[in-house]
Request: fold
Amino acid sequence: MTTLATASIFHHPDAVESDDKPLAGRRTAGQSFLAGYARHVQADKLHCVAQNQAHIDHFCELIQDYGWEGEVTGAMTHQPAALGDPGVVFLPGPGLGAHAWPRRRVGQRIYSLCGITHTVSTRRIMEGLFDSLTGPVEEWDAIICTSDAVHSVVKAELDEADTYLRRRFGARRVPRPQLPVIPLGIDTSRFARSDSLRAKWRREYEVPEDGIVVMSMGRLTVFEKMHPAPLFIALENAARTTEVPITLLMVGWFGDDATEKLHREAAARLAPSVRIEFPNGRDADLRYEIWSAADIFTLPVDNIQETYGLAPVEAMAAGLPVVCSDWDGFKDTIVDSETGIRVRTLFSRGGFGRTIAERFEDGRDSYLQYLGFVQQRTVVDIPEMTVAFVNLIQNPDLRARMGAAGKARARQLYDWEAIIPQYQALWGELNARRSRGIPSSPREGDEAANPSGMDPFRLYARYPTDAITNVSVLSADRAVSVDEVQDLVVLTGAAYLKRLVTAREHIAMISEMIHRDGPIRLDQVIEASGLSPGGAEGAVLWLAKFGLVRITV
Reply:
């Protein structure tokens, strides 16, 4: 029997859309997930984990806006011991390593980590996957891969890292996270088309009665999504073959003027028979309404930054046939010849990209150059794409049949109502694995939870002449008041640090005790003050720093 569990959702405002941030696929997906989660999760209360209270409050506001009326609890990332309930922390990206180290402070069996892929081509993501094997990530953690294609990338990266670690260190076992494949979801109801919206937007772009509207959706960027030239050429060929007026609506947004110039010039030169418009995809109402104007959706992606592709799924939900490249997640979502047509793609053979990878790794090439050099060796078959457009343009029954099949497929497989239970089932499985698992690298004794986060007073122990001990003797000529402590805080710039070694009142109390009872040992001060050993010792050293206490080691 499958157990459905919940998770603490890691939230940062940057993970969702807002007016002050550029639109991006990961933000659209993040916002859609929260809305779907609020509506379809099977739970009595929700949990959030964030870096500060403001981010928790932001999560609560969003989740309530999306219809959640139940209880919401929040915890801070710097309090890992508080994350044991409900037992899983769901992260908005695939990097588990940075979150596994804080967990090791309290024990790896306290909770599981579950990340999710978006793009997997950046250096940060590649290095993060390697960190997932070198850090204390366990077999009860997981990285959700949104497509079989992405699963192959993540597995290849982990396999390569695994081989390196075994050869270098003679490792017999390299724990790795689970890699389940669960697609991204959408709210399919938001993409319903209507006759009135169809008439509105076709009038807006002066589409003739017998015209065909082909539509794309997404960032209009040459090196991060797709080069438009193959699409323009294929549509020009289709327009000449069918003699049907074609309007291409490239709904999206340009990152800069140079990109816009390239698109417009390429459109004019390569597709003079096609009317090509660039509706503003930043307009949220337009993004949902303009689907009604279209007859065919297309997204012939040729870029490795793309991993899943929400837009073709949205197109299916809108009842549109899809013409896309046979690429990454499209292989999972679009059923060729049933819900659309996947156009053949070609790639360089393995072995010819080593120089491209090395130039990106050592910084000679930027990320965009890396993507662009790979893209230059990626081919979307233009003749095959032309045939796909011609067949759909000339056959309204085929468009209707594919559109209906796509709509049913989107509703059955990709609506959040179908996806959220898969997340909850995975989280239940991770809880079960954790309950019977043995940590691969438990923390022992006073060992640092993270080797790169050692106690500085141990790490730099050879720097000073001596260190204070419990039997160090303390004395003072006078006591200082809380006001004098505050004056020193201001005078020395300590306010910039935003916190003291302990409270001002505690520093004044320690000062009074040493003046009154000194000479006195440090352990006696700790016991009499009732403060933690670290707090009391910190107060003593702070006072000594300004000549207000003498220490005899």
